[in-house]
Automatic annotation (TrEMBL), chain A:
<dbReference type="InterPro" id="IPR004714">
    <property type="entry name" value="Cyt_oxidase_maturation_cbb3"/>
</dbReference>
<protein>
    <recommendedName>
        <fullName>Cbb3-type cytochrome oxidase assembly protein CcoS</fullName>
    </recommendedName>
</protein>
<dbReference type="Pfam" id="PF03597">
    <property type="entry name" value="FixS"/>
</dbReference>
<feature type="region of interest" description="Disordered">
    <location>
        <begin position="31"/>
        <end position="50"/>
    </location>
</feature>
Automatic annotation (TrEMBL), chain B:
<feature type="transmembrane region" description="Helical">
    <location>
        <begin position="377"/>
        <end position="401"/>
    </location>
</feature>
<feature type="domain" description="HMA">
    <location>
        <begin position="16"/>
        <end position="82"/>
    </location>
</feature>
<feature type="transmembrane region" description="Helical">
    <location>
        <begin position="352"/>
        <end position="371"/>
    </location>
</feature>
<keyword id="KW-1133">Transmembrane helix</keyword>
<dbReference type="Pfam" id="PF00403">
    <property type="entry name" value="HMA"/>
</dbReference>
<dbReference type="InterPro" id="IPR018303">
    <property type="entry name" value="ATPase_P-typ_P_site"/>
</dbReference>
<dbReference type="InterPro" id="IPR036163">
    <property type="entry name" value="HMA_dom_sf"/>
</dbReference>
<feature type="transmembrane region" description="Helical">
    <location>
        <begin position="172"/>
        <end position="190"/>
    </location>
</feature>
<dbReference type="Pfam" id="PF00702">
    <property type="entry name" value="Hydrolase"/>
</dbReference>
Length: 50, 735
């Protein structure tokens, strides 16, 4: 029972971290050009988003 | 492309930037070529190509004019570029799909955590202390309620909008189920009962959001592609200022009374009167007539026609907003309204589905009360029915199929503008083709079979002295002969001495053929009798196969053209089309299609010209070539890229199998409901069963949609000896 009081908040914090990371990625435009990113990583001298 | 880019350049902090739409960039090779090529220029500080939207963002240090230089550089690399004009609906689409993604992420987060807690409750079963269970339920509620409120907004808003005008849509039962499930679960938690439905409510939201997101992405993608095509064809006009300077301005800004200069090969931007110059006007895209019209000073030229002679000056009669083009636009808009009345399959299903679901839930409630259940059990079971019948699979069935189908067509250079266009295409029974520019190339080909070889060489050599389009068609027959004393009479013909003999080439009166037929071209060598050179339009190489394929699919193929009956009949016979009508005006094309529709037929119109646009928008479905006029493309559901009709039978096949997949999916959803609903009605559904059943049905529906990816992947040539080459594989990619 005591372990639950720890584990539930930990699980929630982990989940929230993942959600926040996704929101950050979305906001910073990482999903703007999925087609281009797929091709870009194959080229020898790719230009990462600065 | 002679649009100046300078007005689109933004200057900020010493560096200039511009957004361009780049045509033809489709692969990683193109991307690297464009970015590396432009970054090699010393002044360019940033060049970033977005392959998904075909947009190039360029930043450089220097004057705004440099943008034109970059555009030329791109053109040298084999890519056409046009300024990207920020569009409100682009912004809104991007915003909407971003919001849906956020809602999906939130729902996924909530769903995972609530499910984790639910699993604890299910597996704990009777062993779990009531206090622990209640605690877990409270934690679930704390996660689920805010998330449902945030992620469920798309459904709540749409349901509210429908209810406000006293109609229902699919979102009404969805919202009802979400609200009731959350409300009831909260009540159960409060009283410490065993079952809650938080996980079911969140799963409902998550699965339905996937469908919404696919739908939004489909619409954004097709809308964007269509606007890009339009952006690449910005038409501009050259206006003569009072000080004698020529300025370039967008065609929409032309005013009556302006004097415009139309160079050879340019499209006339507005209706007007010829002020100077003898014009040879190509009206093929406007009327379908292939022969050139000879016009003189004082004659009226219509917008959309092309000047094939040397530059002329035109005084504008009407602004582009009330010209001949504007009339056509009005007809197109009227047609698009009739098309908009088409009810999508999913909506039709929803219309039948929603009352059934509501009655079932109500019957369950009443039934349990009559059978002597407590009000709580009755409400619980009624809500279980609402949740389990919730159209998860139904909501995914259509968008999942359409996204796959449209993506499949996209990869073969066929642009479908909306999901319901695909549905309409699958119901077509009649295909109506335009002739000029659609079945034919719209280029002049002379028939020289009746002419002696030596004479032909003389005629060809003379023809090479002129830049008239009819003469140009004969240039290939030129030989290395002496030419002298060339005289060209504007609008009449050309004469000169070739190899010591006098040769005349031109109209009937010019060569002295008297009252002979006045079509094509006449030639006379020395004192011989004049010879007639009939000119015709050559059919597209793939047209015959396409017509045969469509007939094989059980479609009735027809041809409507504005051109002369003889020419039309000849082309039709060549292609194997039995129903032909010639000399048809835009309004008559429209009438022909309406007549077919009145008989209950469903018509696909294929065209490319301005004269086809009203018919395109009135037909049940329509297809245009990307090389056609802008107005015909914007009136069409399908745009065929790569200047070939070959994709048309493929589009039909994909549309038909998409319809089959959608129907299978509806079948699956209905089958699942028939299994699950009785269980729910009789009170056997626990949240576990509801969650499992719902996700299983959604998964099956999605997997079924993915089968479309294989459509046409392994198919051989449609007819032995004939091979289809997809536009995507014909070297469209410039890399």
């Amino acid at each position: 029972m005591n372990s639950l009081l720890w584990l539930i908040p930990i699980a929630l914090v982990l989940g929230l971290t993942a959600l926040a990371t996704f929101v950050w990625a979305l906001r910073s435009g990482q999903f703007d050009d999925p087609d281009g990113d797929a091709e870009r990583m194959l080229s020898d001298d790719d230009f990462p988003l600065t | 492309m002679s649009v100046t880019l300078a007005p689109f350049v933004r200057i900020a902090g010493g560096s200039a930037s511009v957004d361009l739409v780049v045509d033809g960039a489709r692969c990683g090779g193109c991307l690297a070529k464009i970015e590396n090529g432009l970054q090699a220029l010393p002044e360019v500080t940033q060049a970033r190509m977005n392959l998904t939207t075909s947009r190039l963002h360029l930043v450089w240090n220097g004057p705004a004019d440099a943008a034109d230089l970059f555009a030329r550089k791109l053109e040298e690399m084999g890519f056409r570029a046009a300024p990207y004009i920020q569009n409100d609906s682009d912004q809104r689409d991007a915003q909407a799909s971003r919001m849906l993604l956020m809602a999906m992420a939130a729902a996924a987060f909530g769903l995972m955590n609530v499910m984790m807690l639910s699993i604890a409750v299910w597996s704990g079963g009777a062993d779990m202390a009531a206090s622990t269970r209640t605690l877990l339920h409270w934690v679930s509620a704390a996660i689920a309620l805010p998330i449902a409120a945030y992620a469920g907004r798309p459904f709540f808003l749409s349901a509210w909008q429908a209810l406000r005008v006293r109609t229902t849509n699919m979102d009404v039962p969805i919202s009802l189920a979400i609200l009731l499930a959350c409300g009831l679960s909260l009540y159960e938690t409060w009283h410490g009962h065993v079952h809650t439905y938080f996980d079911a409510a969140l799963m409902l939201i998550f699965l339905l959001l996937i469908g919404r997101f696919l739908d939004a992405r489909l619409r954004a993608r097709t809308g964007m592609a269509a606007r890009q095509l339009a952006a690449l064809q910005v038409t501009d006009a050259k206006r003569l200022r009072t000080d004698g300077q020529v300025e370039t301005l967008p065609a929409t800004q032309v005013r009556p009374g302006d004097q415009l200069i139309v160079a050879r090969g340019e499209r006339i931007p507005a209706d007007g009167i010829i002020l100077s110059g003898n014009a040879q006007i190509d009206a093929a895209l406007v009327t379908g007539e292939t022969a050139l019209q000879a016009l003189r000073v004082g004659d009226i030229v219509y917008s959309g026609t092309i000047n094939r002679s040397d530059a002329i000056t035109v005084s504008v009669l009407k602004a582009s907003s009330d010209s001949f083009l504007a009339d056509i636009t009005a007809m197109v808009e009227a047609g698009q309204q009739t098309q908009a009345r088409y009810v999508r399959l999913a909506d039709r299903a929803a219309r039948a589905y929603v009352p059934v679901v509501h009655s079932l839930a109500l019957l369950t409630l009443v039934g349990w009360l009559i059978a002597g259940g407590t009000p709580r059990t009755a409400i619980l079971n009624a809500i279980a029915v609402l949740i389990i019948t919730c159209p998860c699979a139904l909501g995914l069935a259509v968008p999942a199929v359409q996204v796959t189908a449209v993506g499949r067509l996209f990869s073969r250079g066929i642009l479908v503008r909306s999901g319901d266009a695909l549905e309409r295409l699958a119901t077509i029974s009649h295909v109506v083709f335009d002739k000029t520019g659609t079945l034919t190339r719209g280029q002049i080909t002379p028939d020289v079979t009746a002419i002696d070889h030596d004479d032909l060489a003389r005629i060809g050599t003379l023809a090479r002295q002129s830049s008239h389009p009819l003469s140009e068609a004969l240039h290939i027959y030129a030989a290395d002969l002496d030419v002298a004393k060339i005289t060209e009479v504007e609008g009449e013909g050309l004469m000169g001495e070739v190899d010591g003999q006098s040769v005349r080439l031109g109209q009937t009166s010019f060569v002295g053929a008297g009252d002979q037929i006045d079509t094509g071209l006449w030639a006379r060598i020395g004192d011989q009798a004049p010879v007639h050179i009939p000119v015709s339009d050559r059919t597209r190489p793939e047209a015959r196969t396409v017509v045969r394929d469509l007939s094989d699919m059980g479609l009735s193929v027809r041809m409507l053209t504005g051109d002369a009956p003889d020419t039309a009949a000849q082309i039709a016979q060549e292609l194997g089309i039995e129903m032909v009508e010639a000399r048809v005006k835009p309004a008559q094309k429209l009438a022909h299609i309406s007549a077919l529709q009145d008989k209950g037929r469903s018509v696909l119109m294929v065209g490319d010209g301005i004269n086809d646009a009203p018919a395109l928008s009135h037909a049940n479905a329509s297809a245009a070539l990307a090389s056609g006029t802008e107005i015909s493309r914007s009136a069409s559901d399908i745009v065929l890229q790569g200047d070939t009709l070959a994709g048309l039978p493929f589009a039909f096949r994909v549309a038909r199998s998409a319809r089959a997949r959608v129907r299978e999916n509806f079948g699956l959803a209905i089958g699942y409901n028939m299994l699950a609903v009785p269980l729910a009605v009789f009170g056997h559904v626990t949240p576990l069963v509801a969650a499992l059943a719902m996700s299983a049905s959604s998964l099956i529906v999605t997997l079924n949609a993915l089968r479309l990816r294989r459509e046409g992947a392994y198919e051989g040539p449609a007819h032995p000896g004939q091979t289809y080459v997809s536009p995507a594989r014909t070297g469209k990619c410039a890399a």
